Amino acid sequence: MAVCYIGLGANLNDPEQQxxxxxxxxxxxxxxxxxxxxxxxxxxxxxxxxxxxxxxAVAQLQTELEPLALLDVxxxxxxxxxxxxxxxxxxxxxxxxxxxxxxLQLRSERLNLPHHEMHKRSFVLLPLxxxxxxxxxxxxxxxxxxxxxxxxxxxxxxxxxxxx
Length: 164
Ligand code: ROI
Fold this sequence. Notes:
Blueprint: E1 2-10, H1 15-27, E2 32-37, E3 40-43, E4 54-63, H2 67-80, E5 95-101, E6 106-107, E7 112-113, H3 122-131, H4 143-146, E8 154-158
Antiparallel strand pairs: 1-4, 1-5, 2-4, 3-4, 3-8, 6-7
Bound molecules: 7,8-dihydro-7,7-dimethyl-6-hydroxypterin (ROI).
């Protein structure tokens, strides 16, 4: 059984509903339990600024799926939600990113673990710290030690715990 963290992001086509739909789908994955969900956060776009603000959240899973099998089901869910992606680093209706899978390190065409940008992204780190303040990041730092740097970049909007 692996513990895995998924970053959810959306900024098109009713982003809150997109994130809720994705969480319901995560809950229904085979050989998997949804064990924690962060609050819903609002964030300014990283990338081109002429796109809507994002909603973000992070989910914690316990899963028996192997990393690539999990990636397959995440990508299938993005497709099921009619994923639209207009340009590189541009707007999208739903993004499901695998951030961590236990302490597995994997560099491949399809999947990089840990997610190579995670330590720079407030919309990953703050929700992660909310779910698991004791988490040690791949670089050995404690997640709660670095989140203060990012305070103010992210707005906590509301809890999503009713989805658990
Ligand atoms: N910016 C924010 N704020 N949130 C995201 O989830 C997000 N996802 C992305 C890019 C385009 C890099 N920017 C983002 O993939």
